[in-house]
Specification:
Length: 350
């Protein structure tokens, strides 16, 4: 099928309208109209090839909410008109031990990303949610629970699951002391989800500017990372830190905040960790780990949890033709806390 979207044609070009083909429906495919798409910092990284594996054109977007418009002959879970969502994954091998556990993000054969990936059958590039329509195999489609405002929910599909997955992996529950480094798209979801699980949450930000916001999001405290005295006073006070900073940064100020056996989980930056001292790790059996998005089953559980608890991202709705300005603002952390594109504005912008 012919469709349209917004694509980056090179590392330096702005996103612009682009007409392209989506594959015809396979028997196990769902076709959807995209209504809303969140703007993740990963979209910016990949439009600009920050990670070195972008293949152009890049149509970003992996926080996708829409409506089913057609289904293949073997599809059993969805029907035309269903309110559905798609996140960062559109395929995996489906038979390795990780896929069988529902951890498709850890597929032994490598998962297929929603954009900037390769279709497992044809090898064609995958294109993301800054577009009018999407075709995805049934197993990678999520059901939007009733009671979750679909216009605001899109960021749950990446920012939500990427922070939910480590909260669950490290067993966060009533009273767990959780730190969140960086209050952006991922960070604000980490706060809301951890609070929803009953944790005691501390935001660790570069300044006190977001203190009132942090409190409103439900956080119990805010630490300013440059305030050495406050950071020292908070030594050994956290069980888990989720670090969402998108660029290379020094971990040494954060590690002493962990109590014995505490873990700092990197979900933001990809690449080298400069000058990390092993001393705080050895002295208190602290750990540094990382975590990629989350599996499909876990994503559905997170969506259902958010519906039950009334948890929704804080969003600023934009038109499709505002995306380049939104990228500039995202880079300056000038969004509280996630841009969402109203995709009904695409036709007029294309
Ligand atoms: P974002 O909205 O831009 O938020 C990042 C936050 O980090 C900012 O709000 C800011 O918080 C802090 N920050 C920004 N620049 C910083 C700097 N130079 N030094 C220290 N702190 C800084 O980004 P996002 O969408 O949440 O994404 C965050 C990162 O996660 C990106 O790198 C993205 O690619 C990655 N990501 C990873 C996965 C995964 O699977 N692991 C999934 C999605 C996204 P303060 O102002 O509070 O300091
Ligand atoms: Zn993302």
């Amino acid at each position: 099928m012919k469709t349209i979207g917004y694509a980056a044609q090179s590392t330096t070009s702005p996103l612009e309208p682009w007409a392209f083909e989506r594959r015809d429906l396979r028997p196990n495919d769902v076709q959807m109209r995209i209504d809303w798409c969140g703007v993740c910092h990963s979209d910016l990284h990949q439009a600009r090839n920050d990670w070195g594996w972008s293949s152009y054109p890049v149509v970003p977007g992996h926080e996708i909410v829409g409506v089913v418009t057609a289904v293949g002959s073997d599809v059993t879970k969805y029907r035309e008109g269903d309110r559905v969502a798609v996140g960062c994954l559109v395929d995996s091998c489906q038979h390795c031990d990780q896929c069988e556990k529902g951890e498709e993000q850890l597929c032994r054969e490598g998962n297929t990303q929603t954009y900037n990936g390769r279709d497992r059958i044809t090898g064609e590039p995958t294109y993301g949610g800054y577009s009018k329509d999407l075709v995805v195999r049934e197993e990678f489609v999520l059901r939007m629970p009733d009671g979750l405002d679909p216009a605001r929910a899109a960021p749950l599909l990446c920012a939500g699951i990427t922070t939910w997955s480590p909260l669950k992996t490290w067993g966060v529950t009533e009273g767990t002391r959780v730190g969140v480094v960086g209050l952006g798209g991922l960070g604000h979801m980490a706060v809301k989800l951890a609070v929803g699980l009953g944790a005691h949450v501390t935001v660790i930000s570069r300044s006190a500017d977001k203190a009132a916001d942090a409190a409103e999001l439900g956080a119990h405290a805010l630490l300013v990372s440059s305030d050495k005295a406050a950071m020292k006073a908070a030594s050994d006070s956290l069980d888990l830190i989720i670090d969402t900073v998108p660029v290379e940064h020094d971990l040494n100020p954060y590690l002493p905040l962990l109590d014995v056996d505490g873990t700092l989980v990197l979900v933001g930056q990809l690449g080298p960790i400069p000058n990390m001292s092993s001393l705080p790790l050895l002295l208190a059996r602290r750990r540094v780990s990382g975590s990629p998005i989350g599996g499909i089953k876990e994503t559905q559980e997170m969506l259902d949890f958010c519906a039950e608890k009334g948890i929704l991202p804080d969003v600023e709705m934009i038109r499709m033709d505002e995306i380049n300005h939104a990228f500039e603002r995202l880079e300056k952390s000038d969004v509280r806390y996630r841009f969402v594109i109203d995709m009904s504005t695409l036709d007029a912008a294309a």
